[in-house]
Amino acid sequence: MRIWLIGIAVLGAAVATLLLLSLPQNTAYAIDQKDCLRCHGVADLTMRTSSGAEISLYVNKTGLDVSAHRYVDCTSCHTTKPHEVPTPLTKLSLAARCGTCHQYEYKLHLQSVHGQQLLQGNQDVATCVDCHSPQVNPHSIVRVLEVNAPAYKKNISQTCGRCHDNPRLMSRYGILEKVYESYMRSFHGKATKLSQSSDISQLDKATCTNCHGTHDIQNPADPNAPVAGLENLARTCEQCHPGAGVNFADSFLGHKEATPENFPVVHYAERFFTFLTASVVALGVSLVLVETGKWAISRRPKGK
User: Fold this and answer.
1) What angle do CA 146, 110, 220 make, to 5 degrees?
2) DSSP states of 57-118 as a string?
3) 133-155 burial, b for 16+ CB within 10 Å, e for fewer?
4) What pLDDT, in 10s, does the model give residues 263-304?
5) Residue pLDDT, tens place only, 193-224
6) pTM
7) DSSP string, the chain
8) Which of 79, 116, 127, 255 could make an S-S bridge to 182, C-beta 3.0–4.6 Å?
């Protein structure tokens, strides 16, 4: 009797497990209390603005279902009467809307180099969706600690590079340094690239925000910027390198490339070690070829 009871219990557990495994996994649906997606889920839904420009009103439900705001109803951002309230679609109005909930971050952003330019009407600068959405869309904001988030530690340099690795955009503001490329060549960039996204140890690798800030990024020329002057830079370095000091900070090249005019000692030292390494490798290969040739000759039958 006991054996039968044990068998039935095991069978029941197996059936329950199979039922659980057959259920949809990681499925979540965005809240849509007013059934907005009945119209806005149509891909070709558009409208014309007062200036005659045609804009899309389509909301991708797949992206919305996995966004950070999937449990926030549409009316929280668009009001309960979105068709009666004028909502100009600008970067400034969008950032202001995000700021109704994220007040602290919005205040910092307005004080940053990006925010100050935004207040002047500059549409080039980065705002909330540029840094928090893979599609640069307010309906697909991804939480910072998700590995596919643009603001996840390993992805930050690529996110900043959307603008700062664009030569045409950077030339408008006199930024000639290849900041993304120079970062990826640095020790920090290589360490971040080699680390796995799922490896929590990569979270301690320095990236753009460690040196420049997050929502409060300042112009490097601003005396209050974390990277302005050796003393500020030293304090920034000391956040990861305790006791680094001014001499440590002074050895940092920044995003400038070592050339005969800029950091000549570093430039010529790099060239010397490149030549030295190539020479050593070439000599090693030559010795191996000579020895291989001697061995091949010694293996030839005598008299031939």
Assistant:
1) 85
2) ----HHHHHTSTTTTS-THHHH-S-TTTS-----HHHHHHHHHTT-HHHHHHHHHSHHHHHH
3) beeeebbbbbeeeeeebbbbbbb
4) 778 778 888 899 999 999 999 999 999 988 888 888 777 655
5) 887 666 666 677 889 999 999 999 999 889 99
6) 0.74
7) -HHHHHHHHHHHHHHHHHHHHHSPSS------TT-THHHHTSTT-EEE-TTS-EEE----HHHHHTSTTTTS-THHHH-S-TTTS-----HHHHHHHHHTT-HHHHHHHHHSHHHHHHHTT-SSS--HHHHH-TTS-GGG---TTSTT-TTSGGGHHHHHHHHHT-HHHHHTTT--S-HHHHHHHSHHHHHHHHS-TT-GGGGGS--HHHHH-STT---TTSTTSTTSHHHHHHHHHHTTSTT-HHHHHHT--TTPPP-SSSSHHHHHHHHHHHHHHHHHHHHHHHHHHHHHHHHHHHTSPTT-
8) 255
Q: Which amino acid is at 262?
A: N
Locus of tokens 């190539």:
278
